[in-house]
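TEACHING EXERCISE
Course module: macromolecular assemblies
Task: Read the component lines below, then compare them to the predicted structure of the full complex.
Student: A.B.
Group: 4
Components provided:
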Amino acid sequence: MYPWLRRPYTMPATVITGGAGYVGSHTVMALIEQGISNNEIVVIDNLSNAYCEQGDDKPTSLKRIEEMTGRTIRFFNIDLNDEPELCRVFSAFDVQCVIHFAALKAVGESVTKPLEYYEANVAGTISLLGVMRRFGVTKLVYSSSCTVYGEPRKLPIDEGHPTGDGLTSPYGKTKFFCEEIMKDVCISDKSWKIISLRYFNPVGAHSSGRIGEDPSGIPNNLMPYIAQVAVGRLSEVLVFGNDYNTPDGTGVRDYIHVEDLADGHVKAIRLFDQPGFSGFHAVNLGTGTGYSVLQMIAAFESASGRPIPHRIVARRAGDIAENYADVSLSHRLLGWRAVRTLEDMCRDTWRWQKQNPEGFKTTHKTKKN
Ligand code: WQD
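Instructor-supplied answer key:
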């Protein structure tokens, strides 16, 4: 399938699973623009949530990154549960570390499809960890989520907050289970170094407008939904409840620009070179500031110059009122902080959506799968 795989590479490589997806592609961009520029960039993705033009050898997100940077990205269309294929990739490169994004991530969908989520997110992670161990690769950055905290007992949420209690979705449970597995792996073998980055609400797009969030179907999340209303693909935003105990009654979240998030991953990889660094470390990636649904709508209207029709409806099952991060550990441990503002998030989202009204698929082609 990959003819050049026959010639084992000695080049040091960074493997990014799920690197064709939203946060993954922005992290690939950041690695090339500022991070590990000497390493071969190897992306493993099964394209379950990434668009690939009919007949193309790479998903559009990666092709655009190659166009912008002039760098070649090694791409493998592999499912993490396909261990033999995974081994072929690890035997062809001198893998230095892995950034693991690959997962199914729609909270609502996970309730109706638990087995698919446990197979993709948990079994896939176990398969990856097994192959990493086989090839002596013990440095991992893991894409986790603030959903592992469940309903916040206090705000802001710090990394000492209990995890795994009252998780309402299989998606959140898969993130919690994977963290627990990684903790046990680190206890069993001191050579492992694992940094689990707990994202709050990723939004925004690369400043070029060439890559961004491209949800398939009707967006579950607020920001892409607002953007599709602004560009005319959807008619109005349904605001899920205005009777929460928050300043304007609507849900409050810690939205973080995806480029800040990507920078956090580059900082995390650098930690592996720190003498004495080892074991499992969970770190929040947020801004420490929460914004309400109505504030997001108003901010997007001013960034886009477009009215965003919206209507208050009933609460969405499983939603919490408020959630925002204690970011002191990320500052201390990673030497990182989010720098982009809500205006940046809205402006960059709008630039992406305006330049790509249909996301990555070009209007005259149908989606590949
Ligand atoms: C945000 C707010 C909704 C849509 C997400 C991911 C989760 C995790 C955290 C990564 C809430 C309201 C939304 C709409 C609305 N990320 N809303 N109308 O629920 O915080 O969780 O980020 O792991 O996986 O799902 O984000 O964008 O869905 O909702 O009123 O059409 O917007 O009630 O208050 P959420 P969201």
